[in-house]
Design brief:
Blueprint lengths: L7 H6 L24 H24 L3 H27 L14
Amino acid sequence: MKKTSPPVTEQLVNVPLRHNNLPGSASHFFAVVPDVDTESMLCHASETLACLSVMATDLARELEGPRRHMILAIQQLSALGELLVNRVLDNLEPPHGPSDVPPHC
């Protein structure tokens, strides 16, 4: 029997994402500015997780069966991550300096 090759699209999808001549992660493409404060980073992380949760929920509406369950699990994990980040934000101590105190209305 003659063995047939998979279609070109299938071959491209199965290509490994890592190349031997590139670093092991894509982190060299993205960086956080070194002097960004913790609260700003946590706020951005919370917003990112909230967006991920919304996108996963929207995608789940279009799927059925096991794929839908997987996307809903991803949505739940992103929502949990958002809750955790928001709790950390709530637990951060308020600023103590006199210039950091907001004026009374």
